[in-house]
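Continuing from the previous page of notes. For each protein in this section, the sequence appears first, followed by its structure tokens. Read the first protein now.
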Amino acid sequence: MLYFAYGSNLHHFQMKRRCKDSIFLKKINLKDFKLTFRSKYRAADIEAKKNSIVPGALFEISKSDEKKLDVYEDFPILYKKHYFYYYGKKVMTYTMVKKSQFKFPTERYLNIVKKGYRDCKLDKKFLIKALQT
């Protein structure tokens, strides 16, 4: 199945550790969404926003990878699944259940996301903008 990563799972080494079958396919942009950080975990989330984009990575993952991600993302308590279509193919990603206030991420978490942006060759300006909320 196809999975869209936009936070710490952009980090290739971490993603491989969590999902041994995962294959990075390419970077893509999710339209009409924006990146933010929230919850007591200060983790990445996306929310609907017209004319905005969230850069991320498209991965091919196995069913067992999906189960591991569900546990890691605390599905369905912290995150729920969101599906969208990319060139006719169904893609799964996670969005937070509770849309709480913005919370600046921890330095450790932010460094993992930054490394993921480098791994996937994403434009950091979107990350910088999300941190200035």
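Done with the first. The second protein uses the same format. Note its length before scrolling.
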Amino acid sequence: MIVKVKLFATLRKYMPNIELGKASEIPIEPGTSISLFYQILGIPEEEVKLAYVNGIYCESDTILKEGDEIGIFPPIGGGCY
């Protein structure tokens, strides 16, 4: 089955050939969880702050389905006091 993924900020280094703002289609096996998906992409889970599936925040045990769109974000800091 195929899902689409967008990596944000520092996580983009794991898929450097994707054009900024574009999603990439990734083939996965049925029953793949978000946590396993990180492994497939080569992303250490500790580098992920949150992920969403179809625009909704999800936990790492969420099972992905055909056509899901996943966004993965690292911890992000910044701003000033």
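What the second structure shows: The mean pLDDT is 92. The chain has one domain: 2-73. We return to this in next week's lecture.
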